[in-house]
Amino acid sequence: MDLAITGRAWVGGRLSTVTIGIDDGRIVRVGARSVPADRELVFLDGMILPGAIDAHVHFRDPGATRKEDFASGTRAAAQGGVTTVLDMPNTDPPVVTRHAFARKLAIARRKAAVDFGLYAAPREDGALTLGSRPIAYKAYLGPTTGGLRVAPESLSHLFADATRNRVPVSFHAEDAGCIEEASRRVVVDGPESHARLRPARCELEAVRRLLPFVRTGLAHVAHVTTQAAARILVSSRASFEVTPHHLLLTEKDLARDVRLKCNPPLRPSTDRAFLWRTLSAGKAILASDHAPHLPSEKRGVLSRVEAGVPGVETMVPLLMARVAAGVLPLRSLVAAACERPADRFGLARKGRIEPGRDADLVVYDPKTVATVEARRLSSKCGWSPFEGFSAVFPTHVFSRGRQVVEDGRFVGKAGWGREVRRG
User: Fold this and answer.
1) Which residues are catalytic?
2) What are the pLDDT digits (tens) for 84-106?
3) What is the pTM of this model?
4) What whole-number distance in Å separates Cα of residue 396 and Cα of residue 387?
């Protein structure tokens, strides 16, 4: 075999000391016995987890590469233990045509250091112009960065196409009419007014609108922020995401730091507490909604501050610190960051340590708790909403058997990443 890695690995729902045999980028054997290999590595002090899948990133490439691109974004992903990223379509140009998809795919193939999938966006009338090629479609029910939006009356058309093509559709679930109504009544008088401009009821109304389509098995709801919406989605067994910034920050944080403006907004601590319980219970997918903007774009008058925060590099390390502190089960983190996104998006070769899967492996030492420092992160945007937070960063990361992080240092290569496909 090409490589054999021995250590305590997450296999079959628990940590076991095993040797993982790897050949041609895939896991071919997992067992207690050693295997002959050209190269052998032993990690006895930490734990080996499957590479995380971040199902929601905005790498701004093409169109806004001053903020991020596939090279810097996938480097950040690798250093945070993320070995697969799914990139959103609201770039410039937006991914709504075959030409735009092909252009973005060529860029990603040239620059990506880890594996990637590309979203596309339906037209306003709900038509899926790219068929089944994208990893998924992203439909915006409310206004946000990029201006893409699907009219509510087009949802039936959209899901008819999605069912025919068997492609998942992820929704930004904030009702546009509700937001427009709120904007007519709210006086923008400071950062705290952002949550009033996009109140919790707008998320709830959008989620209720989607419920008739949940039975297709193709609906997925991005970045859920409220207890009310999460309750409905859990009871209906729909798939949905929670983000680190909605788990770790609240609307009070936005009041002190306008850079934390994001869509949907940060919510009260009661909502945050419910999201934590949902994640711990294994009901949600963890996704970063990595949406970088430069510091110059994140200051000034609220209405002019760009919405979105970076997070792909810190997503898993922040929650690994919670695991190390004993407040989040390791099982819940692996399910949310690896297993559930692999299942949701049909990534049959990702998400688990077992024969036949890609050798996407990440080594963590829970005793090595660090502090998040933006100056040490790889994102081009140069700042983090989690400055000073505790985190456990990976020591070693393997993408399809190739080492991309060694002793905490990035050693990967642009162009190594491959496009992932469903099935």
Assistant:
1) 289
2) 999 999 999 999 999 999 999 99
3) 0.97
4) 23
